[in-house]
Amino acid sequence: MAENAAPAAPVEFATSPEQYHHWQIRIHGGVATLTLAIDRDHPLRPGYELKLNSYDLGVDIELADAIRRLRFEHPQVRCVLVTSGIAKMFCAGANIRMLSQSSHTFKVNFCKFTNETRCEIEDATLNSNQRYIAALNGTAAGGGYELAESCAEIYLIDDGFSAVSLPEVPLLGVLPGTGGLTRLVDKRKVRRDVADLFCTKAEGFRLRDALKMRLVDGGWAKSKWQVEVDKRAAHLVEQAGGVGSEVGIALTPVERQTSHEDDKEILTYRFVHVAIEQGGRHARIELRGPETAPPQSHQELHDLGCNSWALQAFRELDSALLDLRLNHSPVGLLSVTTVGDREQVLAWDTAISRLRAEGSWLAREVQLHQSRTLRRLDNMAKSMFAIVLPGSCFAGTLAEVLWSADRAYMLDHPDQPSAIALHPVNFGVHTTYNSMTRLQIRFFGEPDSMTKAATLHGPIEPSDAERCGLVTRAPDDLDWDDEVRIAEEERLSFSPDALTGMEQNLRFAGQETCDTKVFGRLTAWQNWIFQRPNAVGERGALTMYGDPRSPMFDFNRT
Amino acid sequence: MSAFDLQAKIPNNVNLGDDRRLQRALEQWQPRYLDWWQEMGPEGYQTKDVYLRTAIGVSGDDWAHYDYVKMPDYRWGIFLADQVPDRKVPFGDHMGEPAWQEVPGEYRNVLRRIIVTQGDTEPASVEQQRLLGQTAPSLYDLRNLFQVNVEEGRHLWAMVYLLHNHFGAEGRDEAEELLARRAGDQDKPRILDAFNQPCNDWLSFFCFTMFADRDGKFQLASLAQSGFDPLARTCRFMLTEEAHHMFVGDTGIERILRRSAQLTKLDPSGDARVQGGIDLNTVQKFINFWFSYCLDLFGSEVSSNAADFFGAGLKGRFDEEKRFSEHLALDQKLTLAMPKNGKLVNEDIELRNAMNEVLRQDYIDDCKSAVRRWSKVVQAEGVDFEVTLPSGRFHRHQGIYGGLHFDRDGEPISAEQFEAMRAEWLPTDADRAYLRSIMQPVMAPGQIANWIAPPKKGINGQDFAFEYVRF
After folding, report:
1. Is the same domain home to A154 and A29?
2. Measured between CB atoms, which of B109, B186, B330 is closest to A549?
3. A178 found inside a domain
4. What is the per-residue pLDDT for A4?
5. Residue A531 lies inside a defined structural domain of this protein
6. What is the pLDDT of residues A123-163, one digit of tens each?
7. Partners of B346 in the beta sheet?
8. Residues A494 and A381 in one domain
9. In this predicted model, what pLDDT tens digit does every residue of B207-240 receive, in sequence order?
10. What digits encode the pLDDT tens for the residues A513-534?
C-alpha cells in the first residue's frame, strides 16, 4: 500500500459554494435541492477519475459544507432534496481506485468523516427542521445508497433500469461501511434475512422489489418523476409550517495562521491555539473563553453572525480537529487546556440556552453545532487529556471537554486557585453519539454521583472535583509536573493501535444507538477487513478491482 | 395450454414435453408474449399470409421450412445447437474445466444480466420497426421485414428459455420485464440506447439490420464461446438466423446506393432527389448515425465488467476458439487513444479490461468490408463517390469518448465545431421528412419503389415477383 509514499498535500476542509466542483445548491422557497454532478477531473488527489458520480473526500467535504450552510445561511429551508445531475446514476459510492491507492490511515479517516457527515444529515432532519429527501433519479450503489439511507425518505425513479444496491460484499470484498449495514436493519428496520439478500446481490433491486423490501419509501415513473418529487417536497414544507421566515447568517471562512517555533508547529485561530511538539507526536490545544458578555437577544446574536464566541470558537475547534486527523496523523496525544473567564462561559451558555428556549433558531443551531463539534472530539483516534490549570474556564459547554477526554488532570495549587463549573447544558443539551450526556456515561454505574453533580452550583475546587469524579486526578503543585509529564510520556510510548481500540471501547459506556453501532461496530469491522489480505493483499478483492484477474481468498473463517 | 399443446405448438429440441418446470413458466409467459406481439408487432399485417421461414431443427439443410403463415400463428420454437460432447470452458480463469450445464452460483447474477441485456434487444427491434410495413418498397422487402421481426421474436424466446430454465423466480420476473419495456418509451425504455432510437423509414431499417444486427452477430458469437453451455448452444443457433438479418441490411443499403447512383447519373444536375431518389450524401449520413450508435452497444472501451466476463469464462472474443491460440489474455495490453484534456494520449490497457474494444474492432473490420463493396457498386454505376465509415470516436454516447466531440476522422473538436457540422454529418429533420415523403408503399408483386433497386434474386429460390405477402 501507499503508506510510505511521499506525503500528500494537506487536506483543506474549508470551502464554499463558489468553489464547489461537485455539488450545486439551489433554493426555491422552502425547498433546497442539492445536486450531485461530480466533476470526474477534479479528484482530491491525482491518480483516479471520479467516474459515474463516485466520490472521494473532496466531494464529501463539499457536502458537509453544504449541509452546514443550509442550516446557518438558509434556515428558512424545510426540505432538502438530494439528487443527481448526471443521467441514470445517482451516485456509485466511494471511488474504488481512490480507496485502493489510499493508505490505511487515510481510508479510515475518509470513512470517519463521511460517517460524521451522514450523521449531520440526520441531525439536521431531527433537530433543525430540515428534512432530507433522497430523490434517486438514477442508480444508487454502495455509498450512494448509504447517502440515501441517511435521508429521512428515499424515492427511486421507475425507469426499468435504476436500482439501489450495496455491492461491497460481492464485488469488493469489503463492507458498506458508511452506515450502510447498520441503517438498513436499525434505522429502516429491514428484516435481517431480507437485508442479507440485498447486501449480497451486486446489482441490487429496482423500484418494485426495493419497495417491497423497504429499501425505499416510494418512487415514480420517469414521466411523473419531477412533478411528484416536487409535490412531496412541497407537502413536507407545508407540514413543517410552510417556508420559514428566518434570515440566515453568512459563514465566512475560518481564519488560521500556521507558523513554526523551534521544533513546534503552531496553528493559531482567534479562540483556538494548537502547538504540535515532540516531533509531531503531541498536540497542546488551548481553547479560549469568550472575551465579551453574551448577546441578550436573538437580534444581538444574529448581528454577531458567525463571529459570536459560541459559534466561532467551535468552528475553529472543528477545523483544528479535522486538520489534526488528516494532516497530522502521528499526533497521538491531545492535551487540552482552556483559558478565560469561567463566569463568562457560563453566562454565554445561559444566554444561548435562554434564546433557544425563546425560539431563536440561531441559538439552537449554535448549540447543535457545539454538540457536533464535541462529538467530533469524542471520535478522535488520539488520546486526550484535559489539563485544568489556574485561569482556565472548564465550565458549562467547555467542561464537556473534561469528560470527552480520556483523563482529566486538575492542578490543586494552594496559592493559585483553579475551579471548574457545571451548567444545565451539561445535563441534557450536549449529548454524544449514544444519546447520553457525557456525565451520564461517566457515572453509568454511579447514579448517586450523578445526583450529586446536579446539586453542585458555583465553582468546584480541585479536591471536590476529584472526590465527585469530575476529574481523574488533582495533584498538588509539588506532584503536578511529574505526574502529568509521566502520564503524557507513558501515553506516547504505548502502541497507537491498542490505544485507539482501548479508548474507543472505554469512551461510550451505556446504551448503543445507530450512530455508535456505525462508529463502533460497522467501521471497526470495516477497518479490520481493510487490513486483511482478502481485501488488500496481493490478490485481495479491493486490490484486484479493475484488474483483469479475479481475487483469491483465504477461505479460513477467523 | 396443456403440456401436449405446448409441445405441439412450440417446435423445440429441449424436451419441452417432459419438462414440467419449463412448461409451467411458458404457460404463463406464452399468452403474454402473444398479447405483446399483437400490441407491438407489425402493425396492420397480423391477419395476412406471409411467406416465412420457420426453424424446425438445428442442423442440416432442412433446419427450416418456408410456407405461408399468419404471423400470430408463427411457430416460435426453442432450439439449442447440438451439444458438443465433453465441451470445456474455452477461455478465462476456468479454462479447461468442464463447461457448466447449470448456472454456477457465483456467476448467476452476472449471467442473468448478460442474458437480459441480450434478450432485451430482440423485442426492442420489433417495436422500433412496427410501422415500417406501411411504407414497404416491395412485397419482397415487406416479407423480409416480417421475417426479421418473427425471428427477433424467436430470439426473445431463446433468451426467455434460458431465464425460465436456469434462473428460477428471478428469471421468470425478468422474462416478464422483457415484455413490459418498450422501445423509446420515456418510462419503460429498452436497456440499450440504440434500441430506443426511432426506426421509421426504410433507410434506417436497412442501417439497423446492417449495423445493429451485426452487433448482435458479434455479441452472439462471443457468447457462443461461453463456458455456460446452454447459453453457448442457444447463441450458436441464433447466429444461423441472424445471418439473414444482416443480409437484409447489407443488400438493402447496397440496393439503395445502386439506385441512388443510377438516379444521380440520370439527373442533369446530378441530384438524385430531383429524380425522387435518395442522394448519396444522405445515405452516408444515415450510415454515420447508425454506425456510431451501434458502436455504443459494445460498452465502454475500458471496462471491469468486460474483464470479469472474460475472466469468468462467460463471454469470449469473436471466434475465440478458432482465432486465438492463447485464451487467458493476461499480461497483455491493448493501446487505446484516451482523451485527456481535449487531446488524445495513447495508453496501454490491460487486455481483459479492453475486451469490449477488442470485439468492437472486429466489428468495425467486418463493417469495413461491406462498405468497400458498396463503394464498388456505386462506382460501377459510373458515379465517383466513396462510402466510408466515420471514426470509432465520432458521435459516441457511451464509453471513454461519450459526451466528447470528434470530427468524422476522430480528431477532437469543440462542441461548437461539432454543432456547426452536425447537419453535414448526421441526418436532419428535413432529411427524415424527405425520406418519409418518398416512401410510399408498393404492394403489387414484382413492383418496386423508385428509390431502391430490385434484389438480384428472391427468397428460397423464388422470383422477385413472387407473391411474398398475400392480401
Report:
1. yes
2. B330
3. yes
4. 41
5. no
6. 999 999 999 999 999 999 999 999 999 999 999 999 888 99
7. B337
8. yes
9. 999 999 999 999 999 999 999 999 999 999 999 8
10. 999 999 999 999 999 999 999 9
Considering the domain architecture, whether residues A222 and A286 belong to the same structural domain is answered as no
d(CA B238, CA B81): 9
Position B150, amino acid: V
Contact between A223 and B186 using a beta-carbon 8 Å cutoff = yes
Which of the given ranges, A400-409, B4-13, B53-62, has the highest pLDDT on average? A400-409
Domain that holds residue A171: 10-239
φ and ψ at residue A191, rounded to 5 degrees: -60, 145
B244 neighbors B151 (Cβ within 8 angstroms): yes
The 10s digit of each residue's pLDDT in A77-87 is 999 999 999 98
Rounded to the nearest angstrom, the minimum Cα separation between B170 and chain A is 11
Kindly state whether B319 is in contact with chain A, defined as any CB-CB distance less than 8 angstroms.
no
Backbone angles phi, psi at A27, to 5 degrees: -125, 130
For residue A529, being part of any structural domain is answered with no
Q: Comparing C-alpha atoms, which of B270, B220, B260 is closest to residue B240?
A: B220
Distances (CA, A) of B127 to B37, B123, B181, B184: 9, 6, 10, 9
Considering all CA atoms of chain A, what is the largest pairwise distance in Å, rounded to the nearest integer? 78
Q: Residue B194: pLDDT band by 50, 70, 90 thresholds?
A: confident
State whether A42 and A76 are in the same domain: yes
A468 three-class SS: coil
Do A203 and A303 lie in one domain? The reply is no
CATH assignment at residue A185: 3.90.226.10
Provide, as residue numbers in chain B, all residues whose Cβ is less than 8 Å from the Cβ of A41.
Answer: 341
Amino acid at B341: N
Q: Which of A539-553, B2-16, B147-161 has the lowest mean pLDDT?
A: B2-16
Residue A534 placed within a domain = no
Q: Say yes or no: A279 and A195 in one domain.
A: no
Distance CA B88, CA B90 (A): 6
Which of B91, B111, B195, B304 to mutate against chain A (most A CBs within 10 Å)?
Answer: B304
- Residue A408 shares a structural domain with residue A281: yes
Domains contained in chain A, number = 2
Query: What's residue B2's pLDDT?
Result: 60
Please tell me whether the overall predicted TM-score, pTM, comes out greater than 0.80 for this model: yes
Residue B454 sits at the vertex; the CA angle it makes with B452 and B458, to the nearest 5 degrees, is 140
Surface-to-core class of residue A207, CB atoms within 10 Å of its CB (0-12 exposed, 13-18 middle, 19+ buried): buried
Same domain, A221 and A291: no
| Confidence band, pLDDT 50/70/90 cuts, at residue B1 | low
- Contacts with B205 (C-beta within 8 Å, 6 or more apart), sequence order: B129, B132, B145, B199, B249, B252
* Residues in A touching B308 (Cβ below 8 Å): 550
Domains of chain B: 3-470 (1.10.620.20)
CB contact under 8 A, B187 and A545: no
Q: Which of A239, A274, A290 is the last residue of a domain?
A: A239
